[in-house]
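WARN retry 2 of 3 for item q-0093 after timeout on previous attempt; input resubmitted unchanged.
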Amino acid sequence: MTRCPSLLQIRRPGRRRAGGDPGARLRRAAIAAGTAGLVGLGGAPPAAAAACSPAEGFTRMSGGALYRLADPAPLTTANSLAETGLVGSGWGPFAWTGAGGDGVLYGLTSTGSLLWYRYDGNRTTWAKGSGTVIGAGFNPGTKVVNIAVGANGWIYTVRPDGRLVLYRHTGRLTGAATWADPAGTVLGTGWTGSELIAPQGDGTIYAQVSGYLYWFRHSDPGSGPVAWSNAGQAVKIGNGWRFYDLLALGGGVLLATASPSGQVTLYQHADPGRGGQGWTVAGLKKYVARSDSYGITLSPATCS
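OK item q-0093 returned
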């Protein structure tokens, strides 16, 4: 998906931070790790086990090379995430890139332009229109201090004033510059810039803050006013979380990277729908990031 709004920090694709709220309670919970309100829903039965399709995504190198990533067995097989080929060059200058699923890759420039690309794995080529500018005003550091992609075209941004603003790109599959709400929907305030965030496409957001992992879930803004589960309180679901990057693949499946060139490990939250405690899969080793990479980015709709 970062401890200050610098361009370097936004470059890390999994380096994401969030903590948002519909009110002050959620804001206090996200910032003050270990305080009141951070209790799990222990009495809730776990949801059904996640089902995952083969994962697909990208890894971008500091020298500009872009590689395709694929994992045929995300939940069951160790070290199955691997590079499948070089698919581009000249990608170094981007401030951030994030996979949107179905081969879609978003790229943010240092001047605040948001670009759309889509890679066709069957034809091994980029789709027509790749490189189209679909948005402006996302300047790293001055307008946006963090950005993360959820499924279905949801793009989360954190503003320097602490607002969490959500956009939905309705032209995700075609590259059309169309948005459900061009101005964005403010989900909450008080986001500190010190969190890692990993959103899914159903309103679930995982946030790593000060060594803890928290669960949040909001309603779909398109269906009416934003509402937050658990009375707006953050739910603590993990301790000892001090990872460098964090990605959500859907269905409670998370990929955590230990350092810029470190081990990528998979975890599966047992109850992503309600924030209950417990893990179905924990500690499955998947990949070791390259030493010269900005990390990895995979489809947020891999699992459900």
